[in-house]
Write a structure and sequence with these properties.
Chain lengths: ~260, ~200
Amino acid sequence: MNAVSRPCPERELLLHGLADGELDAANALAMEEHLRSCSGCAATYSGIIRQRQLFKNGGLRLDASLALRGRIRAAIAAEEEPLPESVRGQRTNPRSSWFPRAGIAFSAMALAASLLLFVSSQNPAPSLDEELVAGHVRSLLASHLTDVVSSDQHTVKPWFLGKLDFAPPVVDLSKKDFPLIGGRLDYIGGRVVAAIVYKRRGHVINLFVWPAGKLQAVPETAEGYHLLSWTQGGFSYAAVSDLNPEELRDFRRAFEESLA
Amino acid sequence: MAKKPENAAEFEGRSPAHRKAVFEALVLVHLNSAYTLARYLTRRGDIAEDLVQEAFLRAYRSFDESRSTNARAWLLTIVRNCFFTWKAGGREDLPQREPSEAGTSFERGGGEVEVDETPESILIRHEEDRTTRALIEKLPHPFREVLVLRDIEEMSYREIADITGVPMGTVMSRLARARKMFAAAWEGSQTKSPKEMLR
């Protein structure tokens, strides 16, 4: 590292600005011009670019666990909802209960508190219908209706493979006037589920699918949306839409018949 | 997929499910950014999770749709405040964990595996990522933070200035210094590699 290849001190921050796309056109042009004649600045600049590449390959961003996502969603739901009497007594002050856990770790008090936290983080989970409606609304809001866009069941079905620990049935219902729009993953009831998207006359139908287990009863309407749930062939289904209940039942019938 | 106007109209006045859904669409989508920042700031996966959860609760309590313009920067500001709250409150009491244990949350994430990658190239890349993460973690706080926000989260200078509450000029000089520190550490870790990252 000799003195000849050092950057001009007064241009050092500008080199970073150039690499970060933060310079205005005139300054960027002047710096690019300068780089052609100054080996010190050019070497520093390419060093910055190399480091940016190293950081850019994606492995440095970290994914939060699904468990954390679930905990946060449950905590948010608990903010809004009055707790059932049976749970109320067990809860510590909800405004301050989460965080101090880290600071007083391993004391007996913390142990007791964390047991309470465990209980309180499990109980006030949102009900299934709220989660389904939230999933439906979210799909409409975030321009995130589908992760895979295709009206072809043979495209949508394989897309789920490897992303789920089950293979949801995907059927073509266009002959019944419920065209397939695509599919995506969603997070309902503490697990990743398939959301298969159909339409009728511009109304979106989200069909959530997961392996049949403890099926909770779902009301037919929630937050103004219509819900329909059923179990068939080892899967639980829940259809959510603003479509009228009659047509939603037609949808279920069409879906069931195509699998039969 | 165009949003349907009739649905947009229906969203109005739907609460609290509506508020939750909007919050999830605008803020919860930045969970990985929040976790990434928290993880690098605290250097601990478990603390980072607590911190992020607290940050989202705080965010939700003060959330309204005026926050939607730059929800990510707003959320990261809250994460950072939570970090300082945690730091101020008895972090010295924390038992030091084995690095391998603290590092497990790194392993959970990871990018998508490219199809044309060989097991060897994946291994090399993961090794490189591990080294890079460890080197970032060794940087002092202000430099670590600016590097994460700029070079991992790709925030603009302006956003970083807003999040960290310092002037843009300070952001720029910290960033330049952070990159120099990182490059020196990287060089030290790659003694067999002759090329310099930065000087």
